[in-house]
């Protein structure tokens, strides 16, 4: 009888361990709840919905109103259904006279009723009429500005762009 193992005991490499196994019953299997997996899936779904919501419904408002001209900044501008108005800084280092300007979405020939002189380092306001745009649309207006160097009389042009929401009348 020396080959018999004691009942209720289990041999292992670490020594005796008491077994929870009872004769005639199935071995106990620990079940891990799936609730943790469902929380992870639910959180990921909510996060995806939030990201999609802010991407789809704020895409129009995410675009910032900007005005850029190659001859200098134009930080003060407005776009309405009928006209575009902006101040442009002359950062060329010499006095210029703006002869004409072409703006997408605006008609007129010439666009300027009279030339505008802008000394070096100063700003001048340009107003272009004859535009045809809808209120609350995002306008992307390409511009070409024709000017002369007052010292030489040489005609040059620079390009620029206005990206802005078309505003209604005040």
Which terms summarize this structure?
single chain; 170 residues; mainly beta; Immunoglobulin-like; 2 domains; three-stranded antiparallel β-sheet; 1 helix; 14% helix; elongated
What is the fold's blueprint, element by element?
Layout: E1 9-12, E2 15-18, H1 35-57, E3 66-69, E4 72-73, E5 77-79, E6 83-89, E7 96-103, E8 116-118, E9 123-129, E10 138-149, E11 155-165
Antiparallel strand pairs: 1-2, 3-4, 3-11, 5-6, 6-9, 7-8, 7-10, 10-11
How is this structure best described in words?
- This protein is mainly beta and 170 residues long.
- It has 2 domains: 33-62; 66-165, Sandwich (Immunoglobulin-like), CATH 2.60.40.
- The protein is built from 1 helix and 11 strands; from the N terminus they run ββαβββββββββ.
- The strands form 3 sheets. A 6-stranded antiparallel sheet has the order 4-3-11-10-7-8, with no helix packed on it. A 3-stranded antiparallel sheet has the order 5-6-9, with no helix packed on it. A two-stranded antiparallel ribbon has the order 1-2.
- Strand 3 and strand 4 form a beta hairpin.
- The longest helix has 23 residues, at 35-57.
- The model has no long low-confidence stretch (mean pLDDT 78).
Helix proportion of residues, in percent?
A: 10-25%
Query: Structural class, from secondary structure content?
Result: mainly beta
Q: Helix and strand string, N-terminal first?
A: EEHEEEEEEEEE
- The count of strands amounts to 11
